[in-house]
Amino acid sequence: MKYLYCFRNVLLLVMVLAFKVNSYAQAPKKHYPIIDVHVHAFKASPNTADLCPWFLKNMPGADPHNHGDNPSIFNLDCPDPLKAAKTDKEMQDALLATAERLNVTMIVSGDASVIHNWHKAAPNRIIPSLGISSNKDMTVKAFEDSLTAGFYKVMGEVAPQYQGMSPSDVSLDEYFAVAERLGVPVGIHMGTGGNGNINISNPKYRASLGRPFLLEDMLAKHPKLKIWVMHAGYPMADEMIALMGANAYVYVDLAGFIWSYPLEEIHAYLKRLVQAGFGKRILYGTDLMIWPKLLETSIQVIESANYLSEDQKRDIFFNNAVRFFNLDASKFK
Ligand SMILES: [Zn+2]
User: Fold this and answer.
1) 27 FRET partner, CA 20 to 30 A, in 91, 168, 201, 246?
2) DSSP class of 261
3) Which residues, other chains included, contact 75 with Cβ-Cβ below 8 Å and sequence gap of 6+?
4) Are 279 and 316 in contact (CB under 8 A)?
5) For the Amidohydrolase-related domain, which residue ranges apply (predicted)?
6) Reading across the β-sheet that carries 282-283, which strands appear in turn?
7) In which domain, by residue range, is 134 found?
8) Rounded average pLDDT per 10-residue block, the chain, 333 residues
9) 211 C-alpha to center of ligand 1: Å?
10) What is the pTM of this model?
């Protein structure tokens, strides 16, 4: 009897173990879908540097004769810097593998050949975007032809601020008219230059040209244009909120600023936008350039935001982008 009892226990244990092994053998659950609306495709270089996220947490007073004093995007002053990809293949393989694992679809602008390569390798992960920031980049006709050919679905990153120009500058007007007519969404850089010494690397850049109110004249001319303000117009929350209040089609993305500034500052700014009632108009984005691991680092910032509900996080990661870009949600499950 005692033996029988013992045997029954062993049998039970074996059954439990078999069930566990079986459940581990099942395919891992697919990550919920994420849309990263702000990714840059660059030609890789062996000289690109690693990155410490949140590198602007300490802004020292610098000496004009020693630019090395300035906080820089290329900074290794942290325990575990994100490694820069050194070749195009390394970047593509790492990025697309991460995108597959985390179920991320990316809106990508930048080097046309790199975008084509990524899109060929993973057509369901890449939404190509065409950026122009000045009428010297391409003619209006070439721009319209590129959009109507079907490969590019989005216009961006439009960054007149780096050219010392307002987004309402008349020289860009016809390009915006094309996007409005074709119903193509437009991403416009508004905000900081990011690296703490933009005055040296981009002498035409003006912080004042990142003011969200500068979009008003352009939006008045193009009332049906759908735009999203890249980098959420950081740090000008008041103007951003007023602009979104006045224009129902204006969204923002969180790119760049979510890994450049002190975490408390990032959360305070994001919380302010949500608190003001714009949780349905915030798009997730990274401003990813050459560090594939930045995808995970940036996702974690939103995941750890304890002031956001799970529904609000899903809106930021996915639902808002589906609405803004007219995507078919069922294709992402
Ligand atoms: Zn930008």
Assistant:
1) 91
2) S
3) 51, 52, 55
4) yes
5) 35-327
6) 34-41, 104-110, 126-130, 154-158, 186-189, 227-230, 250-253, 282-283
7) 34-332
8) 44 45 57 96 89 78 68 70 93 96 97 98 98 94 97 97 96 98 97 77 93 97 97 97 96 94 95 98 96 92 97 98 97 86
9) 14
10) 0.88
> CA torsion sign, 80 to 86 to 88 to 93?
negative
Query: Is residue 17 domain-resident?
Result: no
The H or E element that residue 126 is part of is strand 126-130
Task: Return all residues near 236 (Cβ < 8 A) that are at least 6 apart.
Answer: 191, 210, 211, 212
Rounded to the nearest whole angstrom, what is the distance from the C-alpha of residue 159 to the centroid of ligand 1?
Answer: 7
- The answer to whether residue 11 sits within a structural domain is no
**pLDDT for res 7:** 43
CATH of residue 322: 3.20.20.140
Cα-to-centroid distance, 287 and ligand 1 (Å):
7
Pairing of strands 250-253, 227-230: parallel
- Ligand 1 centroid, distance to 101 Cα (angstroms): 26
Could you give the number of structural domains in the chain?
Answer: 1
Whether 10 maps to a domain, the answer reads no
Q: Is residue 210 part of a domain?
A: yes
Q: How far is the CA of 158 from the centre of ligand 1 (A)?
A: 8
Q: 248 C-alpha to center of ligand 1: Å? A: 22
User: Regarding beta strands 104-110 and 34-41, do their DSSP bridges make them parallel or antiparallel, or are they unpaired?
Assistant: parallel
Q: Which of 74, 82, 85 is nearest to 44 (CA)?
A: 85
Residue type, 256: G
The helix or strand, by DSSP H or E, that contains position 141, with its residue range, turns out to be: helix 140-148
Quote the pLDDT of residue 64: 72
User: 84 C-alpha to center of ligand 1: Å?
Assistant: 19
* Predicted pLDDT at 52: 85
| CA 329–ligand 1 middle distance (angstroms) | 27
Token pair of 209 as six digits: 């040209």
